[in-house]
Amino acid sequence: MRYSNRSAIWIALLSICIVFSACSRRPSDEQMANDIQQKAATDEDTKGAPIKVEAKQGKVTLTGKVPTPQAQKKLEQMAMSEPGNTGVDDQTMIDPNAMASQEMAPVAAPAPPPVEKPKPQPIVVPAGTTLTVTTGQALSSKTSQAGQTFLATLAQPISVGGRPALPKGATVSGKVVSAKAKGKIKGEGELSLALTSISVRDHTYDISTEVLSSTVKGKGKRTAGTTAGGAAGGALIGGIAGGGKGAAIGALVGAGAGLIGGAATGNKQVEVPAESALSFTLSAPLTLPPSE
Question: Which residues in 153-178 are b (16+ Cβ under 10 Å) and which e?
């Protein structure tokens, strides 16, 4: 019997200690109220609202006005999640004036999309453009060979829509399409040329031109023209008949002013001295990147 009384006393003392320990760990009502009040003052939905928080024996009472139902729910969650809370009595009301002002608040217009600068467009030199070049070497129906290449320089700049496209002095490459000396075709001399490429700003571009040809047949007779697919065409700008370096651009204009014929000296050969001015017509457009 004595041992039973002692056990009961120890159990009672232990229970009292547990109760006091739990009480000492639970925050005070005042601390609970202050914590909830501070959270409400810093939250985006509830800050600025006239809210009052009270706590008694762990039960939290909320009074005052909140701007929206969302704010009211947020405040309840704050109170319920507070350590030591034993219950929440939410007596707050939604402020109709605050609701109306939020509904009438102007909605900021979306920012306009950034304006993109137009990308520079490529420069297209159209077909039919005339390229006048100055030859860098002599060519002849007697000494030149079909397939032989030659170099020239652009004698006049080319612009497209007011934008510079091909500068004067650009290096141009060409080829001998055909070269037939005296005696091979009934005593006729024939020379046909075409341009194949042009170099601009350290880049080389393939080009396609109509064939510039001249034929000398018989004493004192000469024909000149451009051909595309075998068809004759157009007036030409050529060098001075009889040749010589430094022939002027546009010295002769007309149907008979193409390549230089040797008929003037009776040798029945087509001669193109170095630095002769010849004009070719683009048969296909040339696309260049935008100029810097």
Answer: ebbbebeeeeeebbeeebebbbebbe
